Amino acid sequence: MNDQTDVLAGIEYRMSPTAQEALDQFLNVHPDMQAVHDQPWDVSDPKLFGNEKVHAIFREMRAKAPVNKATGTPQGDYWNITTVKNIQHVEALPKIFASAFEKGGMVIQDSTPQAKAEGRGKTFIAMDAPDHTLRRRAVAPAFTPAEMVRLTDLVRSRTVEVLENLPRGEQFNWHKLVSVDLTTKMLATLFDFPWEHRDALPFWSDWQSDLALGATPELEKLRHDIMIEMGTCMYKLWEQRLNAPPAPDLLSRLIHSEEMPEMDMMEFMANMSLLIVGGNDTTRNTMSGIADAFDRFPQERAKLDADPSLIPNAVQECIRFVTPVAHMRRTAQEDYELDGHLIKKGDKVILWYKSANRDESVFDEPDVLKVDRENARRHVAFGYGVHRCVGARLAEMQLRILIEEMIRLGVRPRVTGKVERLNNVFINGFSNVEVTLDPA
Length: 440
Hints:
The chain has one domain (19-436): CATH 1.10.630.10. It has 16 helices and 10 strands. The chain has helices spanning 19-29, 47-50, 54-64, 84-91, 113-118, 131-139, 145-164, 174-191, 200-209, 217-242, 250-256, 265-296, 298-306, 311-322, 353-356, 392-409; strands at 67-73, 76-81, 97-98, 172-173, 327-332, 336-338, 341-343, 348-352, 414-421, 430-436. It has a 5-stranded mixed beta sheet. A hairpin with a 2-residue loop joins strand 1 and strand 2. Helix 8 (174-191) packs antiparallel against helix 12, helix 9 packs across helix 10 and helix 10 (217-242) packs across helix 11. 45% of the residues are buried.
């Protein structure tokens, strides 16, 4: 790492409460702010994702109306797109179905007038060509096959260290001790972030990715303040790298790339938020989902013990089964007929990856984990087309190494306590997976 001992000196950032704690506390005091959902196919309520009841609703949609419109919901009117075929169809038409922040953005929740005015949320994933193309081109070199080879030994050594130091014979939170720890260290490495401050990264990620926080002015103000704190810290690092020679970390690549146009503070902060969420939330929640799924489907873990060559395919199946990003949004730029339905110009279109990855027309027994599933790679958890996740290779590599080392070291987490999921309509994740490892 660069010499960063004092680069964040004097910068204050809060580390409490967590986003989930803040939201829970606020709703306990203001129960009237709980969303009321009259529409049976309105799945914008975060609680439906925390208790996994949303799967039954998506199953009904896929059977009766794979493309359907929910109206009069707390998130306004929007189209539910629930199958692999239709999601890929929409994503293959980026000129018709836009991602740009100015045209609606990438999430189900509409931006507040203040956020629009300030440009909050204007990330390269919430852009259309040519802006999206240029900015993605600047980021992509950090995730090439050669970079994955360069990082492999480091990821493996950290994974082994974490697994070998887990407590035996006593219950612990796998999400915290394994998933959060490993992904935070990886994220700090990607950014060459000061090691002693790395715990700020998952904290910022949680505050950025919980869309329910924006539903209230008080929580939105707190989130805005925390994002400003994050931006201040990252901008200090930006200034440092600007005056240093090019290096392989992601910040340096962005700064020194000829493809990256000049960014103002809000766009810079939004892109840092995106990269932090993308490099943290998705992988860590799949890691937690692996522990939970291997416990629920022990026969699948046994297949890997017997035949480790199945591990690369198992990674794809675990990503499909967990689906760490529940949805992405597009906004129609012209009238378009999809699967017999007329989507009008300006309509909000929600691509439910969480539903598509359980699409019965594509995946046999979709609610079952099958590490030898022949078409596991058909999942859409990383999106499809020009907006497919730029960091997919890194996520796959981290997950592959985790499973490899779990098998090699005989680490078999048994769920012996709570499995708590996030009440989050965007990030499909966990806050707690209480497990026990048998004594060595």
